[in-house]
Amino acid sequence: MNPAWLSIELEAALVRELDHWYDLLNDRLFGSRLRRPLLALSPGVTRLGAWWSRTRAIELQRAFVLDRPWPEVTSVLSHEMAHQYVDEVLGVRDETAHGETFRRVCEERGIDARASGAPGAAGLGVDDGLASAAIDRVLERVRKLLALAGSSNQHEAEIAMRRAHELMLRHNIEAAAARETRAFEVRHVGEPLRRASRVELDVMSVLEEFFFVEAIRIPTYVVHAGARGHVFELCGTRANVEMAVHVYEFLRATAARLWEENRRDARVTSGRDRLAYMAGVIRGFRDKLAGERAQLRGTGLVWRGDAGLDDYFRARYPRIIRRRRTERISGAHQAGREAGRQIVLNRPIERGPSAGTAPRRLRG
Questions:
Q1: What is the pLDDT of residue 69?
Q2: CA–CA separation, 32 vs 16, rounded Å?
Q3: What's the pLDDT score for residue 354?
Q4: Of 24-28, 114-118, 256-260, 360-364, the least confident
Q5: Which of 119, 17, 138 is nearest to 68 (CA)?
Q6: Do residues 170 and 305 share a domain?
Q7: Which of 251, 205, 201, 202 is nearest to 230 (CA)?
Q8: Which pTM does this prediction carry?
Q9: What is the torsional sign of CA 157, 163, 169, 171?
Q10: If you compute the radius of gyration of the chain from its CA atoms, what whole number of angstroms results?
Q11: Measured at the alpha carbon of residue 322, what is the angle toward residues 68 and 80, in degrees to the nearest 5?
């Protein structure tokens, strides 16, 4: 759809949604200390967003707002709100726009201080070039192991997957123990206007438990539908987020494939067992990873968490609420669980943003 066009009704709904999100971010990230400015859409093409102190206005590029996923829009909005906070609350006007105070405000709140349109890395630490090179080396080794895990020889495939698991675990244990400031980023997956299934929720639990990311389901907005929805947000280092996105897509596709292949299992009574079976697949894969993790503990590799990621996640979501879910174990679920224990994670992950679109830069 041409981003220059929007009906009067959808335009009004968009403005109301921007006001709503300003209030939400103000409460969550700034303790409601900001006074709402004029929120306007700009026809300009050089800036994705800008804070104008003299007129007390935050402008967002119109084409960007209409064309990009909503989490990218709110990332730019929170970036400009950080500028407003430095200007009107802290009263700092003798530094450059992206100076020390601004970077500190962003770091404390998990805001992208680099001013990327897509939510990207945050954090001040090791040189980006050196960090990226180290991450690429890890990704390349994991990529090769996952390619081997696609072997038709089940024994070779299992060994390759276990080695990839060990490599990721060792790398993350060493990085967390070093206590150096690392860059974290976020990525969004899921279809915003579709209700999340128990299968997706189970996949998110697996990602949090074994793939070194934090996951949360967040509200979003679809501009051209004028409707609110939800997507999943994954937080972690770039290497871990890219792996998590790969695993998310792999498990969803594999669970659906196994359901189609095993619908004649005697424990499957009807098509209504689909979600129970697929959730069982994810649970079975989780059982397999837990077994591998127990074996790796015997070699001294014990995962005790990542305090840096915990701090980053809590900065973005200071009032997070965790809920437990109950699960009914049916015959179909058990059948899926048995199939899930045989899954071998494979196929190489790709380099760069999984969405295939590089983060957009702005000045503001």
A1: 94
A2: 18
A3: 36
A4: 360-364
A5: 119
A6: yes
A7: 201
A8: 0.85
A9: negative
A10: 22
A11: 35
Q: Which domain holds residue 313?
A: 128-340
Is pLDDT at 121 greater than 90 in this prediction? Answer: no
- Of 150, 117, 97, 111, whose CA–CA distance to 26 is shortest? 111
Domain CATH for 54: 3.30.2010.10
Which neighbouring-strand residues pair with 228? 221
The distance in angstroms from the start CA to the end CA of the chain is 27
Least-confidence region, from 82-96, 114-128, 154-168, 250-264 = 114-128
Domain count, the chain: 2
Contact status, residue 275 vs residue 197, Cβ threshold 8 Å: yes
Compute the distance between CA of residue 295 and CA of residue 289 in angstroms, rounded to an integer. 10
144-158 burial code (b ≥16 CB/10 A, e <16): ebbebbeeeeeeebb
In this structure, are residues 236 and 185 in contact, taking their beta carbons and an 8 Å threshold?
A: yes
pLDDT in the model for residue 108: 93
Side-by-side strand order, sheet with 38-42: 38-42, 57-61, 49-52
